[in-house]
Amino acid sequence: MVLCEDRECGVCYMPYSRRERIPRVLHCRHTFCASCLELMAQPKSGLLTVRCPLCRQMTCVGRGLGLQEALWVNTKVWDQIAESDEDEEEEEENADGQMQPAPQAERPAPKHSRSKLKLPAFLRKFKKPQERILPVCNIEMKSWRRLTAEETP
């Protein structure tokens, strides 16, 4: 199983954000967005409990505390969330609110339950410098085998 804990929630598959989908750590050290954790939380004998969807370990929160106060923010993920992502998200929401409805013939197909792909954030991953693998030169290759009499200086 591959975990996608780096930039998106493993339950809703939405990217983490600094406002709505804050990455919170359960006691088992798995991270999910606060929105999903709130939906999964169940009151049980005065405690608020959340069962981890990956390992099924229970996380219990004491009386008088909510998940926001009791669970830590995953700072590793938090630091990866660019503040510019939040600005772009706001711009997209504002642009969506100002759009006029399309005529019936041009109206796109209905959206699925998954959210729309944020193309600028997706493309930014490809802009990051990639590690280049250079071919090995002959000198390094010779170091792995014995040198013959012809090759010795």
Terminal residue distance: 54 Å
Which segments are poorly predicted (pLDDT under 50) over 5 or more consecutive residues? Answer: 99-115, 138-144
Question: What is the C-alpha radius of gyration, as a whole number of Å?
Answer: 25 Å
- How many helical elements? 6
Mean pLDDT: 70
Strand content: 5-15%
Number of strands: 5
* Shape summary: globular
Order of helices and strands: EEHEEEHHHHH
- Output the strand order for the largest sheet: 3-4-5
Structural class computed from helices and strand pairing = alpha+beta
Largest sheet: 3 strands, antiparallel
Residue share in helix: 25-40%
GO molecular function: ubiquitin protein ligase activity; zinc ion binding
GO biological process, one term: protein ubiquitination
Keywords: Metal-binding, Zinc, Zinc-finger
Protein name: RING-type domain-containing protein
Task: Pick out its properties.
153 residues
Please render the helix and strand layout as text.
Elements: E1 23-25, E2 31-33, H1 34-40, E3 42-44, E4 47-51, E5 58-61, H2 67-70, H3 75-80, H4 83-98, H5 119-127, H6 138-142
Antiparallel strand pairs: 1-2, 3-4, 4-5
